[in-house]
TrEMBL record:
Lineage of source species: Bacteria, Pseudomonadati, Bacteroidota, Sphingobacteriia, Sphingobacteriales
Pfam families: AMP-binding (PF00501), AMP-binding_C_3 (PF23562)
An example Gene Ontology molecular-function term: ATP binding
Signal peptide extent: none
One annotated Gene Ontology cellular component of this protein: membrane
Matches recorded under SUPFAM superfamilies: Acetyl-CoA synthetase-like (SSF56801)
Source organism, top-level taxon: Bacteria
Keyword terms: ATP-binding, Ligase, Nucleotide-binding
Domain AMP-dependent synthetase/ligase residues, every copy: 31-460
Protein name: Long-chain fatty acid--CoA ligase
Protein backbone atom coordinates (compact mmCIF):
# COMPACT_ATOMS: atom_id res chain seq x y z
CA UNK A 1 0.00 0.00 0.00
CA UNK A 2 1.16 3.54 -0.73
CA UNK A 3 1.43 5.50 2.50
CA UNK A 4 -0.87 8.43 3.13
CA UNK A 5 1.12 11.52 2.17
CA UNK A 6 0.85 15.16 3.21
CA UNK A 7 -0.97 15.86 -0.07
CA UNK A 8 -3.64 13.19 0.39
CA UNK A 9 -7.24 14.41 0.62
CA UNK A 10 -10.41 12.62 1.76
CA UNK A 11 -11.60 11.68 -1.79
CA UNK A 12 -8.18 10.23 -2.59
CA UNK A 13 -8.34 7.68 0.24
CA UNK A 14 -10.76 5.33 -1.57
CA UNK A 15 -8.96 5.85 -4.86
CA UNK A 16 -5.77 4.69 -3.17
CA UNK A 17 -7.54 1.54 -1.92
CA UNK A 18 -8.66 0.43 -5.40
CA UNK A 19 -5.26 1.33 -6.82
CA UNK A 20 -3.03 -0.29 -4.21
CA UNK A 21 -4.98 -2.52 -1.78
CA UNK A 22 -8.12 -4.17 -3.19
CA UNK A 23 -9.69 -4.89 -6.53
CA UNK A 24 -12.59 -2.56 -7.26
CA UNK A 25 -14.80 -5.69 -7.24
CA UNK A 26 -14.07 -6.27 -3.53
CA UNK A 27 -16.77 -5.59 -0.96
CA UNK A 28 -16.60 -2.22 0.76
CA UNK A 29 -20.05 -1.69 2.35
CA UNK A 30 -22.67 -4.04 3.79
CA UNK A 31 -26.28 -3.42 4.72
CA UNK A 32 -29.17 -5.59 5.86
CA UNK A 33 -31.88 -6.08 3.22
CA UNK A 34 -34.63 -8.41 4.36
CA UNK A 35 -32.90 -11.40 5.94
CA UNK A 36 -29.59 -10.99 4.11
CA UNK A 37 -26.61 -8.68 4.20
CA UNK A 38 -26.17 -6.98 0.83
CA UNK A 39 -22.55 -6.49 -0.27
CA UNK A 40 -21.61 -3.29 -2.12
CA UNK A 41 -18.31 -3.14 -3.96
CA UNK A 42 -15.82 -0.30 -4.32
CA UNK A 43 -16.78 -0.15 -7.99
CA UNK A 44 -20.47 0.44 -7.22
CA UNK A 45 -19.64 2.95 -4.50
CA UNK A 46 -17.39 5.02 -6.75
CA UNK A 47 -19.80 4.77 -9.71
CA UNK A 48 -22.64 6.15 -7.58
CA UNK A 49 -20.38 8.88 -6.20
CA UNK A 50 -19.33 9.91 -9.72
CA UNK A 51 -22.97 10.03 -10.85
CA UNK A 52 -23.95 12.27 -7.91
CA UNK A 53 -20.93 14.50 -8.62
CA UNK A 54 -22.09 14.87 -12.22
CA UNK A 55 -25.56 15.86 -11.02
CA UNK A 56 -24.07 18.37 -8.58
CA UNK A 57 -22.02 19.98 -11.36
CA UNK A 58 -25.08 20.07 -13.61
CA UNK A 59 -27.08 22.09 -11.03
CA UNK A 60 -24.16 24.43 -10.29
CA UNK A 61 -22.60 23.09 -7.09
CA UNK A 62 -19.07 24.48 -6.90
CA UNK A 63 -15.99 24.15 -4.77
CA UNK A 64 -16.66 25.43 -1.25
CA UNK A 65 -20.45 25.03 -1.46
CA UNK A 66 -22.07 23.32 1.53
CA UNK A 67 -24.16 20.18 1.02
CA UNK A 68 -26.32 18.98 3.91
CA UNK A 69 -27.13 15.54 5.32
CA UNK A 70 -29.88 14.55 7.73
CA UNK A 71 -29.77 10.78 7.58
CA UNK A 72 -28.87 7.70 9.61
CA UNK A 73 -25.75 5.69 8.73
CA UNK A 74 -26.14 3.91 5.40
CA UNK A 75 -24.38 3.40 2.04
CA UNK A 76 -26.17 6.47 0.62
CA UNK A 77 -24.32 8.62 3.14
CA UNK A 78 -21.04 7.34 1.70
CA UNK A 79 -22.06 7.86 -1.96
CA UNK A 80 -23.20 11.41 -1.26
CA UNK A 81 -20.15 12.30 0.83
CA UNK A 82 -17.67 10.90 -1.67
CA UNK A 83 -19.50 12.76 -4.44
CA UNK A 84 -19.28 16.16 -2.82
CA UNK A 85 -15.76 15.70 -1.42
CA UNK A 86 -14.27 14.99 -4.84
CA UNK A 87 -15.61 18.23 -6.34
CA UNK A 88 -14.48 20.28 -3.34
CA UNK A 89 -17.89 20.81 -1.74
CA UNK A 90 -18.31 20.68 2.04
CA UNK A 91 -20.11 17.99 4.06
CA UNK A 92 -22.59 19.62 6.47
CA UNK A 93 -24.16 16.83 8.52
CA UNK A 94 -27.09 17.48 10.85
CA UNK A 95 -28.14 15.26 13.74
CA UNK A 96 -31.50 13.64 12.84
CA UNK A 97 -32.73 14.23 16.40
CA UNK A 98 -32.46 18.03 16.26
CA UNK A 99 -35.57 20.22 16.35
CA UNK A 100 -36.89 22.00 13.25
CA UNK A 101 -35.67 25.31 14.68
CA UNK A 102 -32.12 23.96 15.14
CA UNK A 103 -32.09 22.37 11.66
CA UNK A 104 -33.23 25.66 10.11
CA UNK A 105 -30.48 27.52 11.96
CA UNK A 106 -27.76 25.16 10.70
CA UNK A 107 -29.02 25.20 7.10
CA UNK A 108 -29.05 29.00 7.09
CA UNK A 109 -25.82 29.50 9.02
CA UNK A 110 -23.97 27.17 6.65
CA UNK A 111 -25.85 28.31 3.54
CA UNK A 112 -26.37 24.68 2.52
CA UNK A 113 -27.49 24.31 -1.10
CA UNK A 114 -28.65 20.69 -0.95
CA UNK A 115 -29.78 18.29 1.73
CA UNK A 116 -29.90 14.49 1.69
CA UNK A 117 -32.88 13.25 3.73
CA UNK A 118 -33.06 9.76 5.21
CA UNK A 119 -36.68 9.11 6.26
CA UNK A 120 -40.26 10.24 5.67
CA UNK A 121 -40.32 11.67 9.20
CA UNK A 122 -37.22 13.77 8.54
CA UNK A 123 -38.56 14.94 5.18
CA UNK A 124 -41.64 16.29 6.95
CA UNK A 125 -39.33 18.29 9.21
CA UNK A 126 -37.40 19.69 6.24
CA UNK A 127 -40.55 20.56 4.29
CA UNK A 128 -41.79 22.71 7.20
CA UNK A 129 -38.68 24.89 7.19
CA UNK A 130 -37.36 24.65 3.61
CA UNK A 131 -38.87 27.95 2.43
CA UNK A 132 -37.15 29.70 5.34
CA UNK A 133 -33.78 28.60 3.92
CA UNK A 134 -33.13 30.77 0.84
CA UNK A 135 -29.85 29.08 -0.19
CA UNK A 136 -31.43 25.61 -0.37
CA UNK A 137 -31.98 24.55 -4.01
CA UNK A 138 -32.43 20.76 -3.75
CA UNK A 139 -34.03 18.43 -1.23
CA UNK A 140 -32.91 14.85 -1.96
CA UNK A 141 -34.78 12.02 -0.16
CA UNK A 142 -33.18 8.56 -0.33
CA UNK A 143 -36.65 7.10 -1.02
CA UNK A 144 -38.82 7.54 -4.12
CA UNK A 145 -42.32 7.88 -2.64
CA UNK A 146 -41.78 11.42 -1.36
CA UNK A 147 -44.60 13.04 -3.34
CA UNK A 148 -47.28 12.08 -0.82
CA UNK A 149 -45.43 14.37 1.63
CA UNK A 150 -44.60 17.21 -0.78
CA UNK A 151 -47.63 17.26 -3.12
CA UNK A 152 -49.64 19.86 -1.18
CA UNK A 153 -46.67 22.11 -0.48
CA UNK A 154 -45.22 24.83 -2.70
CA UNK A 155 -41.46 24.72 -2.27
CA UNK A 156 -38.75 27.06 -3.50
CA UNK A 157 -36.27 24.17 -3.59
CA UNK A 158 -36.65 21.29 -6.02
CA UNK A 159 -37.26 17.78 -4.67
CA UNK A 160 -35.68 14.75 -6.35
CA UNK A 161 -34.97 11.24 -5.05
CA UNK A 162 -31.38 10.08 -4.74
CA UNK A 163 -32.04 7.23 -7.19
CA UNK A 164 -33.18 9.79 -9.77
CA UNK A 165 -30.11 11.94 -9.02
CA UNK A 166 -27.91 8.90 -9.74
CA UNK A 167 -29.86 8.07 -12.93
CA UNK A 168 -29.57 11.64 -14.26
CA UNK A 169 -25.94 11.82 -13.15
CA UNK A 170 -25.03 8.65 -15.05
CA UNK A 171 -26.69 10.05 -18.17
CA UNK A 172 -24.48 13.16 -17.93
CA UNK A 173 -21.35 11.44 -16.61
CA UNK A 174 -19.47 11.34 -19.92
CA UNK A 175 -19.86 15.09 -20.18
CA UNK A 176 -18.56 15.73 -16.66
CA UNK A 177 -16.03 12.91 -16.15
CA UNK A 178 -12.96 15.02 -16.96
CA UNK A 179 -14.23 17.92 -14.87
CA UNK A 180 -14.80 15.61 -11.87
CA UNK A 181 -11.21 14.35 -12.17
CA UNK A 182 -9.96 17.92 -12.50
CA UNK A 183 -11.94 19.10 -9.46
CA UNK A 184 -10.64 16.16 -7.40
CA UNK A 185 -7.05 17.08 -8.31
CA UNK A 186 -7.71 20.69 -7.32
CA UNK A 187 -8.87 19.82 -3.77
CA UNK A 188 -6.14 20.97 -1.37
CA UNK A 189 -5.34 19.51 2.06
CA UNK A 190 -6.03 22.97 3.52
CA UNK A 191 -9.54 23.10 2.01
CA UNK A 192 -12.54 22.59 4.29
CA UNK A 193 -13.88 19.04 4.09
CA UNK A 194 -16.68 19.30 6.65
CA UNK A 195 -18.69 21.63 8.81
CA UNK A 196 -19.67 19.78 11.96
CA UNK A 197 -21.93 21.71 14.28
CA UNK A 198 -21.18 21.39 17.97
CA UNK A 199 -24.09 19.93 19.91
CA UNK A 200 -24.00 22.92 22.22
CA UNK A 201 -24.60 22.26 25.94
CA UNK A 202 -24.82 26.06 26.13
CA UNK A 203 -25.59 28.67 23.50
CA UNK A 204 -26.21 28.15 19.79
CA UNK A 205 -24.34 25.50 17.75
CA UNK A 206 -21.09 26.52 16.10
CA UNK A 207 -19.92 25.12 12.77
CA UNK A 208 -16.49 23.54 13.24
CA UNK A 209 -14.40 23.83 10.07
CA UNK A 210 -12.36 20.67 9.57
CA UNK A 211 -10.00 20.42 6.63
CA UNK A 212 -8.98 17.46 4.48
CA UNK A 213 -5.61 17.62 6.24
CA UNK A 214 -7.29 17.52 9.68
CA UNK A 215 -9.06 14.26 8.79
CA UNK A 216 -6.27 12.58 6.80
CA UNK A 217 -3.52 13.36 9.30
CA UNK A 218 -5.74 12.19 12.17
CA UNK A 219 -6.36 8.87 10.44
CA UNK A 220 -2.71 8.44 9.50
CA UNK A 221 -1.34 8.88 13.03
CA UNK A 222 -4.11 6.79 14.61
CA UNK A 223 -3.20 3.92 12.29
CA UNK A 224 0.43 4.38 13.36
CA UNK A 225 -0.62 4.14 17.00
CA UNK A 226 -2.87 1.09 16.35
CA UNK A 227 -0.91 -0.80 13.68
CA UNK A 228 -2.93 -4.02 14.16
CA UNK A 229 -5.75 -2.67 11.95
CA UNK A 230 -5.40 -4.31 8.54
CA UNK A 231 -7.27 -4.49 5.24
CA UNK A 232 -9.27 -7.56 6.30
CA UNK A 233 -11.13 -5.92 9.19
CA UNK A 234 -14.91 -5.63 9.30
CA UNK A 235 -16.20 -2.62 11.22
CA UNK A 236 -19.81 -2.51 12.45
CA UNK A 237 -21.00 1.09 12.30
CA UNK A 238 -23.81 2.31 14.56
CA UNK A 239 -22.66 5.61 16.10
CA UNK A 240 -23.89 8.57 14.02
CA UNK A 241 -21.74 9.64 11.07
CA UNK A 242 -23.00 13.16 11.78
CA UNK A 243 -20.56 13.05 14.72
CA UNK A 244 -16.82 13.37 14.12
CA UNK A 245 -15.87 10.30 16.19
CA UNK A 246 -17.60 7.71 14.00
CA UNK A 247 -16.66 9.54 10.84
CA UNK A 248 -12.96 9.40 11.63
CA UNK A 249 -12.63 6.22 13.71
CA UNK A 250 -14.76 4.06 11.39
CA UNK A 251 -15.54 5.68 8.03
CA UNK A 252 -12.23 7.41 7.28
CA UNK A 253 -10.12 4.63 8.79
CA UNK A 254 -11.89 2.11 6.54
CA UNK A 255 -11.49 4.40 3.52
CA UNK A 256 -7.77 4.63 4.24
CA UNK A 257 -7.07 0.99 5.09
CA UNK A 258 -9.47 -0.93 2.85
CA UNK A 259 -11.65 -2.33 5.66
CA UNK A 260 -15.31 -3.25 5.25
CA UNK A 261 -18.08 -1.20 6.87
CA UNK A 262 -21.31 -2.94 7.87
CA UNK A 263 -24.11 -0.56 8.85
CA UNK A 264 -26.15 -1.66 11.86
CA UNK A 265 -29.91 -1.48 11.40
CA UNK A 266 -30.52 0.32 14.70
CA UNK A 267 -29.34 0.47 18.28
CA UNK A 268 -32.16 -1.92 19.23
CA UNK A 269 -30.92 -4.49 16.68
CA UNK A 270 -27.22 -3.95 17.39
CA UNK A 271 -26.76 -7.17 19.40
CA UNK A 272 -28.44 -9.19 16.63
CA UNK A 273 -26.37 -7.47 13.95
CA UNK A 274 -23.15 -8.19 15.87
CA UNK A 275 -23.96 -11.89 15.82
CA UNK A 276 -24.67 -11.77 12.07
CA UNK A 277 -21.80 -9.56 10.87
CA UNK A 278 -19.22 -10.87 13.37
CA UNK A 279 -17.22 -7.61 13.35
CA UNK A 280 -13.52 -7.49 14.17
CA UNK A 281 -13.54 -3.81 15.24
CA UNK A 282 -16.23 -1.45 16.55
CA UNK A 283 -16.32 2.14 17.71
CA UNK A 284 -18.58 2.61 20.71
CA UNK A 285 -19.39 4.91 23.60
CA UNK A 286 -18.87 4.18 27.31
CA UNK A 287 -22.59 3.93 28.04
CA UNK A 288 -22.96 0.96 25.68
CA UNK A 289 -20.03 -0.80 27.36
CA UNK A 290 -21.51 -0.05 30.78
CA UNK A 291 -24.79 -1.65 29.70
CA UNK A 292 -23.01 -4.74 28.37
CA UNK A 293 -21.06 -4.92 31.64
CA UNK A 294 -24.22 -4.62 33.76
CA UNK A 295 -26.09 -7.20 31.69
CA UNK A 296 -23.20 -9.69 31.79
CA UNK A 297 -22.83 -9.36 35.57
CA UNK A 298 -26.56 -9.74 36.07
CA UNK A 299 -26.80 -12.73 33.73
CA UNK A 300 -23.76 -14.41 35.26
CA UNK A 301 -24.94 -14.13 38.84
CA UNK A 302 -28.75 -14.26 38.52
CA UNK A 303 -29.03 -18.04 38.90
CA UNK A 304 -27.01 -18.05 42.12
CA UNK A 305 -25.46 -21.24 43.42
CA UNK A 306 -22.72 -23.01 41.48
CA UNK A 307 -23.24 -21.06 38.24
CA UNK A 308 -22.73 -17.72 39.97
CA UNK A 309 -19.64 -19.02 41.79
CA UNK A 310 -18.12 -20.23 38.52
CA UNK A 311 -18.81 -16.86 36.87
CA UNK A 312 -17.21 -14.87 39.70
CA UNK A 313 -14.29 -17.32 39.88
CA UNK A 314 -13.71 -16.87 36.13
CA UNK A 315 -13.62 -13.08 36.47
CA UNK A 316 -11.10 -13.38 39.30
CA UNK A 317 -8.87 -15.66 37.19
CA UNK A 318 -9.27 -13.28 34.23
CA UNK A 319 -8.11 -10.39 36.39
CA UNK A 320 -5.03 -12.25 37.65
CA UNK A 321 -4.15 -13.39 34.12
CA UNK A 322 -4.54 -9.86 32.75
CA UNK A 323 -2.46 -8.27 35.51
CA UNK A 324 0.40 -10.71 34.95
CA UNK A 325 0.38 -10.00 31.21
CA UNK A 326 0.19 -6.23 31.73
CA UNK A 327 3.22 -6.46 33.99
CA UNK A 328 5.10 -7.85 30.98
CA UNK A 329 5.34 -11.36 32.42
CA UNK A 330 4.17 -14.79 31.21
CA UNK A 331 1.41 -16.43 33.29
CA UNK A 332 2.58 -19.65 34.94
CA UNK A 333 1.25 -23.04 33.88
CA UNK A 334 -1.32 -23.28 36.69
CA UNK A 335 -2.79 -19.83 36.01
CA UNK A 336 -2.80 -20.57 32.28
CA UNK A 337 -4.73 -23.81 32.88
CA UNK A 338 -7.28 -22.03 35.07
CA UNK A 339 -7.62 -19.29 32.46
CA UNK A 340 -8.28 -21.85 29.73
CA UNK A 341 -11.11 -23.31 31.83
CA UNK A 342 -12.53 -19.82 32.51
CA UNK A 343 -12.35 -19.06 28.80
CA UNK A 344 -14.28 -22.21 27.90
CA UNK A 345 -16.92 -21.97 30.63
CA UNK A 346 -17.55 -18.20 30.74
CA UNK A 347 -15.54 -15.87 28.51
CA UNK A 348 -16.19 -17.62 25.19
CA UNK A 349 -19.95 -17.47 25.75
CA UNK A 350 -19.86 -13.69 26.31
CA UNK A 351 -17.56 -13.15 23.32
CA UNK A 352 -19.82 -15.23 21.08
CA UNK A 353 -22.57 -12.66 21.61
CA UNK A 354 -20.33 -10.07 19.95
CA UNK A 355 -19.79 -12.40 16.99
CA UNK A 356 -16.68 -14.03 18.41
CA UNK A 357 -14.15 -12.18 16.23
CA UNK A 358 -13.61 -8.84 17.98
CA UNK A 359 -9.96 -7.76 18.06
CA UNK A 360 -10.86 -4.67 20.04
CA UNK A 361 -13.41 -1.89 20.52
CA UNK A 362 -12.61 1.81 20.40
CA UNK A 363 -14.35 3.83 23.11
CA UNK A 364 -14.77 7.58 22.77
CA UNK A 365 -17.10 10.48 23.43
CA UNK A 366 -16.67 10.35 27.22
CA UNK A 367 -14.44 8.78 29.85
CA UNK A 368 -14.92 5.04 30.35
CA UNK A 369 -15.25 4.09 34.04
CA UNK A 370 -12.08 2.27 35.13
CA UNK A 371 -13.95 -0.75 36.47
CA UNK A 372 -15.77 -1.26 33.15
CA UNK A 373 -12.50 -1.20 31.18
CA UNK A 374 -10.98 -3.69 33.62
CA UNK A 375 -14.02 -5.96 33.34
CA UNK A 376 -13.63 -6.25 29.55
CA UNK A 377 -9.89 -6.72 30.00
CA UNK A 378 -10.59 -9.61 32.37
CA UNK A 379 -12.73 -11.22 29.67
CA UNK A 380 -9.96 -10.80 27.13
CA UNK A 381 -11.83 -8.14 25.11
CA UNK A 382 -9.53 -5.19 24.53
CA UNK A 383 -11.03 -1.70 24.83
CA UNK A 384 -8.92 1.10 23.37
CA UNK A 385 -9.89 4.52 24.67
CA UNK A 386 -9.45 7.75 22.76
CA UNK A 387 -9.91 11.42 23.56
CA UNK A 388 -10.68 14.49 21.54
CA UNK A 389 -13.33 16.99 20.54
CA UNK A 390 -15.07 17.94 17.32
CA UNK A 391 -12.60 20.84 17.17
CA UNK A 392 -9.66 18.38 17.19
CA UNK A 393 -10.95 16.22 14.31
CA UNK A 394 -11.22 14.43 16.85
CA UNK A 395 -8.36 12.28 18.18
CA UNK A 396 -5.70 13.81 20.45
CA UNK A 397 -4.76 10.63 22.25
CA UNK A 398 -5.56 6.94 21.97
CA UNK A 399 -4.58 3.79 23.84
CA UNK A 400 -1.74 1.81 22.33
CA UNK A 401 -2.76 -1.73 21.51
CA UNK A 402 0.06 -3.28 23.54
CA UNK A 403 -0.01 -0.91 26.54
CA UNK A 404 -3.22 -0.55 28.57
CA UNK A 405 -3.60 1.88 31.46
CA UNK A 406 -7.22 1.68 32.62
CA UNK A 407 -8.81 4.98 33.57
CA UNK A 408 -6.75 6.89 30.98
CA UNK A 409 -7.36 7.83 27.33
CA UNK A 410 -4.01 6.78 25.95
CA UNK A 411 -0.81 8.20 24.54
CA UNK A 412 -0.61 11.52 22.69
CA UNK A 413 -0.77 10.90 18.93
CA UNK A 414 2.26 11.76 16.74
CA UNK A 415 2.70 15.28 15.40
CA UNK A 416 0.89 17.31 18.07
CA UNK A 417 1.59 18.85 21.48
CA UNK A 418 -0.73 18.42 24.45
CA UNK A 419 -0.31 20.81 27.35
CA UNK A 420 -1.75 20.89 30.86
CA UNK A 421 -2.35 24.52 31.85
CA UNK A 422 -2.96 25.79 35.38
CA UNK A 423 -6.55 27.08 35.39
CA UNK A 424 -5.71 30.06 37.63
CA UNK A 425 -2.18 31.16 36.67
CA UNK A 426 -2.45 30.10 32.98
CA UNK A 427 1.09 28.71 33.18
CA UNK A 428 1.74 25.33 31.57
CA UNK A 429 2.28 22.58 34.12
CA UNK A 430 3.49 20.17 31.42
CA UNK A 431 3.69 19.89 27.63
CA UNK A 432 3.95 16.39 26.19
CA UNK A 433 4.27 14.89 22.70
CA UNK A 434 4.24 11.37 21.33
CA UNK A 435 8.04 11.34 21.42
CA UNK A 436 8.38 12.52 25.04
CA UNK A 437 6.25 9.60 26.29
CA UNK A 438 7.46 8.16 29.60
CA UNK A 439 5.33 5.45 31.19
CA UNK A 440 6.31 6.66 34.66
CA UNK A 441 5.50 10.34 34.07
CA UNK A 442 2.75 12.03 36.11
CA UNK A 443 1.74 15.66 36.66
CA UNK A 444 -0.84 17.84 38.39
CA UNK A 445 -4.19 18.48 36.73
CA UNK A 446 -5.22 21.54 34.76
CA UNK A 447 -6.91 22.52 31.50
CA UNK A 448 -5.98 20.33 28.52
CA UNK A 449 -4.69 22.35 25.56
CA UNK A 450 -3.53 21.09 22.16
CA UNK A 451 -1.52 22.46 19.27
CA UNK A 452 -0.86 20.82 15.91
CA UNK A 453 -2.39 19.19 12.84
CA UNK A 454 -5.60 18.04 14.55
CA UNK A 455 -6.82 21.54 15.48
CA UNK A 456 -9.73 22.92 13.46
CA UNK A 457 -9.48 25.81 11.03
CA UNK A 458 -11.96 27.70 13.22
CA UNK A 459 -15.68 28.24 13.71
CA UNK A 460 -17.69 29.03 10.56
CA UNK A 461 -18.45 32.77 10.37
CA UNK A 462 -17.43 33.22 14.01
CA UNK A 463 -13.95 34.79 14.26
CA UNK A 464 -14.53 36.12 17.78
CA UNK A 465 -15.56 32.69 19.10
CA UNK A 466 -12.57 31.15 17.30
CA UNK A 467 -10.20 33.63 18.98
CA UNK A 468 -11.68 32.72 22.37
CA UNK A 469 -10.54 29.09 22.08
CA UNK A 470 -7.40 29.29 19.91
CA UNK A 471 -4.85 31.63 21.46
CA UNK A 472 -2.15 33.69 19.76
CA UNK A 473 0.36 30.83 20.13
CA UNK A 474 -1.93 28.36 18.36
CA UNK A 475 -3.06 26.47 21.48
CA UNK A 476 -6.66 25.22 21.36
CA UNK A 477 -8.19 25.33 24.84
CA UNK A 478 -10.40 22.27 25.18
CA UNK A 479 -12.28 23.27 28.35
CA UNK A 480 -11.47 19.80 29.74
CA UNK A 481 -9.58 19.21 32.96
CA UNK A 482 -6.99 16.45 33.04
CA UNK A 483 -3.43 15.38 33.74
CA UNK A 484 -0.82 12.89 32.64
CA UNK A 485 -0.79 9.58 34.53
CA UNK A 486 1.75 6.87 33.73
CA UNK A 487 2.54 8.78 30.55
CA UNK A 488 -1.07 8.64 29.34
CA UNK A 489 -3.64 11.41 29.28
CA UNK A 490 -6.30 11.17 31.98
CA UNK A 491 -9.53 13.18 31.89
CA UNK A 492 -11.10 14.58 35.04
CA UNK A 493 -14.05 16.61 33.76
CA UNK A 494 -15.17 19.72 31.86
CA UNK A 495 -14.33 23.11 33.39
CA UNK A 496 -17.97 24.14 32.82
CA UNK A 497 -19.16 21.06 34.72
CA UNK A 498 -17.06 21.78 37.79
CA UNK A 499 -19.10 22.43 40.94
CA UNK A 500 -17.64 24.68 43.62
CA UNK A 501 -19.48 24.11 46.90
CA UNK A 502 -20.27 26.77 49.49
CA UNK A 503 -16.99 26.00 51.28
CA UNK A 504 -14.86 26.45 48.13
CA UNK A 505 -14.28 22.74 47.49
CA UNK A 506 -14.08 21.74 43.81
CA UNK A 507 -16.24 18.77 42.80
CA UNK A 508 -15.83 17.26 39.34
CA UNK A 509 -19.15 15.52 38.55
CA UNK A 510 -17.98 12.88 36.06
CA UNK A 511 -15.74 10.76 38.35
CA UNK A 512 -18.29 11.09 41.17
CA UNK A 513 -21.17 10.08 38.87
CA UNK A 514 -19.11 7.16 37.55
CA UNK A 515 -18.63 5.91 41.10
CA UNK A 516 -22.40 5.71 41.63
CA UNK A 517 -22.89 4.22 38.16
CA UNK A 518 -21.13 1.09 39.39
CA UNK A 519 -24.51 0.25 40.90
CA UNK A 520 -26.54 -2.09 38.67
CA UNK A 521 -29.66 -0.28 39.90
CA UNK A 522 -28.65 3.12 38.49
CA UNK A 523 -28.91 4.17 34.84
CA UNK A 524 -27.78 7.79 35.18
CA UNK A 525 -26.75 10.36 37.79
CA UNK A 526 -26.91 14.14 37.43
CA UNK A 527 -24.98 15.88 40.20
CA UNK A 528 -26.00 19.27 41.67
CA UNK A 529 -24.19 21.37 44.25
CA UNK A 530 -22.60 24.52 42.82
CA UNK A 531 -22.41 27.14 45.60
CA UNK A 532 -24.40 24.77 47.85
CA UNK A 533 -23.41 23.30 51.21
CA UNK A 534 -23.74 19.72 50.01
CA UNK A 535 -24.21 17.55 46.89
CA UNK A 536 -27.60 16.40 45.66
CA UNK A 537 -28.54 14.44 42.56
CA UNK A 538 -31.23 13.45 40.10
CA UNK A 539 -30.95 9.68 39.69
CA UNK A 540 -32.59 7.58 36.98
CA UNK A 541 -32.84 3.86 37.78
CA UNK A 542 -32.28 1.17 35.16
CA UNK A 543 -35.76 0.49 33.78
CA UNK A 544 -35.35 -3.26 33.23
CA UNK A 545 -33.89 -3.85 36.70
CA UNK A 546 -36.55 -1.66 38.30
CA UNK A 547 -39.37 -3.48 36.52
CA UNK A 548 -38.05 -6.91 37.46
CA UNK A 549 -37.42 -5.99 41.09
CA UNK A 550 -40.80 -4.36 41.75
CA UNK A 551 -42.90 -6.21 39.12
CA UNK A 552 -43.86 -2.97 37.39
CA UNK A 553 -45.88 -2.71 34.19
CA UNK A 554 -44.90 -0.40 31.30
CA UNK A 555 -47.74 1.93 32.31
CA UNK A 556 -45.72 2.89 35.42
CA UNK A 557 -43.29 4.76 33.17
CA UNK A 558 -46.11 6.61 31.41
CA UNK A 559 -47.38 8.25 34.60
CA UNK A 560 -47.27 12.07 34.46
CA UNK A 561 -45.18 12.57 37.61
CA UNK A 562 -41.57 13.25 36.66
CA UNK A 563 -40.21 11.87 39.91
CA UNK A 564 -40.98 8.58 41.68
CA UNK A 565 -42.27 8.99 45.24
CA UNK A 566 -42.56 5.29 46.13
CA UNK A 567 -40.63 4.82 49.41
CA UNK A 568 -39.69 1.23 48.57
CA UNK A 569 -38.02 2.28 45.32
CA UNK A 570 -36.35 5.29 46.93
CA UNK A 571 -34.93 3.17 49.76
CA UNK A 572 -33.79 0.54 47.25
CA UNK A 573 -31.77 3.19 45.40
CA UNK A 574 -30.56 4.69 48.69
CA UNK A 575 -28.92 1.38 49.66
CA UNK A 576 -26.49 1.64 46.74
CA UNK A 577 -26.02 5.39 47.01
CA UNK A 578 -24.89 4.87 50.61
CA UNK A 579 -22.72 1.88 49.63
CA UNK A 580 -20.78 3.72 46.90
CA UNK A 581 -20.57 6.98 48.85
CA UNK A 582 -17.94 5.25 50.99
CA UNK A 583 -15.55 5.42 48.02
CA UNK A 584 -15.77 9.22 47.91
CA UNK A 585 -14.61 12.16 49.99
CA UNK A 586 -17.34 13.46 52.32
CA UNK A 587 -17.82 16.69 50.33
CA UNK A 588 -18.36 14.61 47.13
CA UNK A 589 -21.09 12.36 48.53
CA UNK A 590 -24.75 12.64 47.56
CA UNK A 591 -26.72 13.76 50.61
CA UNK A 592 -30.22 13.98 49.08
CA UNK A 593 -31.58 12.78 45.75
CA UNK A 594 -34.67 12.57 43.56
CA UNK A 595 -35.52 9.47 41.52
CA UNK A 596 -36.51 10.37 37.95
CA UNK A 597 -39.07 8.10 36.33
CA UNK A 598 -37.55 8.23 32.82
CA UNK A 599 -34.12 9.17 31.43
CA UNK A 600 -33.23 12.62 30.16
CA UNK A 601 -33.85 12.81 26.40
CA UNK A 602 -32.71 14.74 23.36
CA UNK A 603 -36.33 15.32 22.36
CA UNK A 604 -37.09 17.07 25.66
CA UNK A 605 -33.98 19.20 25.28
CA UNK A 606 -32.23 17.87 28.39
CA UNK A 607 -29.20 16.35 26.64
CA UNK A 608 -27.25 16.94 23.44
CA UNK A 609 -27.16 14.48 20.52
CA UNK A 610 -23.84 13.25 21.95
CA UNK A 611 -25.65 12.44 25.22
CA UNK A 612 -24.08 15.23 27.28
CA UNK A 613 -26.44 16.81 29.84
CA UNK A 614 -27.36 20.45 29.33
CA UNK A 615 -26.62 21.53 32.87
CA UNK A 616 -28.30 24.95 32.79
CA UNK A 617 -31.38 23.57 31.05
CA UNK A 618 -31.79 20.72 33.54
CA UNK A 619 -31.20 22.92 36.58
CA UNK A 620 -33.76 25.46 35.35
CA UNK A 621 -36.32 22.86 34.27
CA UNK A 622 -36.20 20.95 37.56
CA UNK A 623 -35.49 23.95 39.79
CA UNK A 624 -38.44 23.26 42.11
CA UNK A 625 -37.41 19.64 42.72
CA UNK A 626 -33.80 20.69 43.25
CA UNK A 627 -34.82 23.37 45.74
CA UNK A 628 -36.76 20.75 47.70
CA UNK A 629 -33.56 18.73 48.16
CA UNK A 630 -31.98 21.71 49.89
CA UNK A 631 -34.94 22.03 52.24
CA UNK A 632 -35.97 18.45 52.90
CA UNK A 633 -35.23 15.32 50.85
CA UNK A 634 -34.22 11.73 50.70
CA UNK A 635 -31.05 11.33 52.74
CA UNK A 636 -28.51 8.89 51.38
CA UNK A 637 -26.02 8.92 54.20
Amino acid sequence: MNSITALTTVPNLLRNVVKNIHSEENTFLLRKVGNNWEEISYKETLANADAISAYFLEIGINKGDRCGFIIENCPEYVYYDQALQQIGAINTSIYPTLSEHEIEYILNDSGAKTILVGTHFLLKKIIKIANNCPELIRIIPVFSDYEKITEKTILNAGVISLSQVITEGKQNLERYKNLINQRRAEVLPSDISALIYTSGTTGIPKGVMLTHSNFVENVKVCLQQIPVIDKNETFLSFLPLSHVFERTATYHVCCAKGCKIAFAQSLELLAKNMGEVRPTVMSCVPRLLEKIHDKAIKSGTAAGGVKAKIFLWALEIGQKYREVQEAGKTPNVFLSMKHAIAEKLVFSKIKEKTGGRLKFMISGGAALPKNVGEFFGNLGIKILEGFGLTETSPVMSVTEYHRQVYGTVGRVIPGIEVGIQDVDTKKFISIQTHDTFNEDFECEEGEICVRGHCVMKGYWNKPAETAEVIDADGWFHTGDIGRFFKGNLQITDRIKNMLVNAFGKNVYPTPVENTYLKSPKIESVFLIGDKKEYITAIITPGRETLQETFHLKDAFFDLPDTFIDDDQIINWIAEDVKKYSNELAKFERIKHFKVKRNPFTIEEGDITPTMKPKRKVIEKKYAEAIEEMYLVGTEAD
